[in-house]
Specification:
It is an enzyme of class 1 (oxidoreductase). By secondary structure, the protein is α/β, with parallel strands linked by helices. Helices cover 55% and strands 12% of the residues. It contains eleven helices and eight strands. α7 runs antiparallel to α8. The two termini are 34 Å apart.
């Protein structure tokens, strides 16, 4: 299978690097391109075997699975550009949540799917979210699921939970990184620990927490129960968290869904109802 990646910004680059480092594909089986070609060439310097296409059409013509990794308002333009070289045996994959597989299917005549990746895939971990178009063949479904098992836990989702699932899988790392940084800053401000030490301790704590969950030693709930002794120091901290966080996470999901609604409106204006 030949892989094409159109757009090598943050997620496009992460996708390319993860697929190669996870031995899902070889560099020689991948062709990439970017509006600013120098960004694609930077990746080629790390993986000399891969090819850089001069434009989106060249990548689509030479690839079997074509990942469209551009911003939502640029997707339609890319589809219109590559459509003349698409054949029925190819598959177009979007990675952006506001554009549905049905909208993409309305513009191309090949198999279509959406795969929403996560930055955690760069560590060959985390989840990738799958949605399939009505014309997507079983062969392509199985092929891409198998491919992404090398870099993630692939999971098919319903359209109605696309935004919240993406919030958890793709936005979650940024949300929790922000919380941990605030945790570190609080420790530095209120105690004699320095920033470097607090960051090191917090980073290693997170890695250890992940391993406990990965190895099924505890669930999130049982882990908290094990650490939080009644009347102890951890309990005092939990009491503060319960008081201060309140409905913070509900507000986060309200904000992301509001922004998502705005993006959906824009894509409908582009693609039509």
């Amino acid at each position: 299978m030949k892989i094409g990646i159109i757009g090598t910004g943050n997620m496009g680059r992460i996708l390319a690097e993860a697929l190669i480092d996870g031995n899902a594909v070889s560099p020689s089986s991948m062709m990439i391109t970017n509006r600013t070609l120098s960004k694609a060439i930077e990746i080629q310097k790390i993986y000399p075997g891969l090819s850089v296409g001069k434009n989106a059409a060249e990548v689509a013509e030479n690839a079997d699975a074509i990942f469209v990794c551009v911003k939502p308002h640029h997707v339609l333009g890319v589809l219109e550009t590559i459509n003349p070289v698409l054949t029925s045996d190819k598959c177009v994959i979007s990675i952006t949540s506001p554009i549905s597989v049905e909208q993409i299917e309305s513009k191309v005549d090949c198999s279509v799917m959406r795969i929403i990746p996560s930055i955690t895939n760069r560590a060959l971990a985390g989840v990738s979210l799958f949605s399939f178009g009505s014309r997507c063949t079983t062969v392509w479904r199985e092929a891409l699921f198998t491919l992404f098992k090398k870099v993630s836990v692939p999971l098919e989702i319903e359209e109605k939970i696309t935004r919240v699932a993406s919030d958890i899988v793709s936005c979650g790392p940024a949300f929790f990184s922000h919380l941990v940084q605030s945790f570190i800053n609080g420790a530095v401000k209120e105690t004699e620990i320095d920033q470097e030490t607090a960051t090191k301790l917090s980073s290693e704590m997170l890695i250890g927490l992940g391993e406990l969950l990965k190895q099924n030693h505890y669930t999130l709930q049982t882990l908290q129960e094990k650490v939080c002794v009644k009347g102890g120091i951890t309990g005092e901290g939990i009491t503060v968290l319960e008081s201060e966080t309140g409905d913070m996470f509900e507000k986060i999901f309200q904000a992301t869904h509001k922004k998502f609604a705005e993006e959906l409106k824009k894509t409908k204006e582009q693609f039509g109802p």
